[in-house]
Write a structure and sequence with these properties.
This protein is α/β, with parallel strands linked by helices. It has a single domain (13-35, 73-302), classed as Rossmann fold (3-Layer(aba) Sandwich), CATH 3.40.50. The protein contains 10 helices and 9 strands. It has helices spanning 17-25, 28-34, 52-59, 73-79, 93-98, 135-147, 161-175, 188-206, 237-244, 291-302; strands at 13-15, 82-86, 103-107, 121-124, 155-159, 211-216, 247-255, 262-267, 287-288. A 9-stranded mixed beta sheet has the order 1-4-3-5-6-2-7-8-9. A hairpin with a 6-residue loop joins strand 7 and strand 8 (262-267). The longest helix has 19 residues, at 188-206. The chain starts with 12 loop residues before the first strand and ends with a helix.
């Protein structure tokens, strides 16, 4: 059963193996009901605007104190890692995200089954039979973590960005009139708004004082050995996202490694066949699929 937690009120739950079985086998009618669109129009705002006044008050310095702060290794650690993890389906992206410290998952894909092999994790929505079907639920999740005074988590995982884009597109089609040839077909202006809303949303999450992890699938290579990169809707999203995050890890299965001849690894160093990025002194091309190996290089900076 779900354990009652003090974080973000009653909105999240500890997800354990028995709950995943319940989610898999039961509640089909409930899940169907959750997919029915809300007839009430969603409030149109970007995450963070509701908290603008509160943020300004927090940043006001006390009279007589220096308005400047020191950025050092300890400060960087307090800000947390800001990472994008991408790769093919089944490569271990969600597993890897679960190895980050005390993760809270915004579960947009319903793919948390593998996390129970790592440890119990927090999940939003709390009810394991409930799905995120509207962008307003993403806004609500942001408001909850933004105002949480007693967080029981250190990492926020958005799983996945492609599903987040899908929710945004549904919100755009529902709430904004346009000359569309088909009801669900995006116009050029819609693609522009999709990118603006996505980037504003991701920036808002990245400013939170936690480890922030985004997961994403990958593009299909045009031929064997061709360059792959994160799969997103629209051409503008990936180049802008690449500049926002500090770490881009390519999660994949490597042949020839491990006792079984294959191993799940993550690469933060660029390669001719995939894109990656790091601001840490990572030397190896392939790291084991566990956060502790990434943390090792952050601790080297501390030394």
């Amino acid at each position: 059963m779900a354990k009652k937690t003090a974080d973000v009120g009653a909105a999240v739950a500890v997800l354990e193996p028995t709950e995943l079985v319940d989610k898999e086998l039961g509640g089909a009618s409930d899940q169907l009901d959750n997919r029915i669109a809300d007839p009430e129009k969603d409030v149109d705002f970007y995450p963070g605007e509701a908290d603008k006044e509160e943020t300004e008050e927090e940043e006001t310095s006390t009279e007589g104190e220096s308005p400047f702060g020191v950025w050092d290794a300890e400060t960087a650690q307090d800000k947390g890692f800001k990472a994008l993890l991408y790769g093919p389906s089944g490569a271990g992206k969600t597993w890897y995200a679960a190895t980050f410290p005390r993760p809270l998952f915004l579960d947009l894909e319903g793919g948390l089954r593998t996390t129970v092999q790592v440890k119990p994790v927090l999940r939003y929505p709390k009810n394991p039979k409930q799905e995120v079907t509207k962008f307003e639920q993403v806004r609500e999740f942001y408001r909850l973590v933004r105002k949480d005074k007693n967080p029981q988590y250190e990492t926020i995982v958005i799983d996945t960005l492609f599903e987040l884009q899908y929710l945004i597109t549904r919100d755009i089609v529902k709430n904004y009139d346009a000359n569309r040839q088909m009801d669900d077909q995006l116009t050029l202006q819609d693609y522009g708004k999709l990118n603006r809303v996505l980037m504003e949303t991701l920036r808002s999450f990245l400013k939170l004082p936690y480890h922030i992890v985004f997961t994403c699938g990958q593009t299909e290579p045009a031929y064997e050995g061709a360059l792959v990169y994160p799969k997103l809707i629209g051409q503008a999203s990936w180049p802008e996202l690449r500049g926002l995050v500090e770490q881009i890890g390519y999660v994949h299965v490597r042949k020839g490694g491990g006792e079984s001849g294959v191993e799940n690894v993550v690469s933060y160093r660029s390669h001719p066949s995939f894109v990656a990025k790091t601001r840490l002194p990572i030397e190896e091309t392939f790291l084991p699929n566990d956060f502790k190996y990434l943390l090792k290089y952050a601790e080297k900076i501390d030394d």
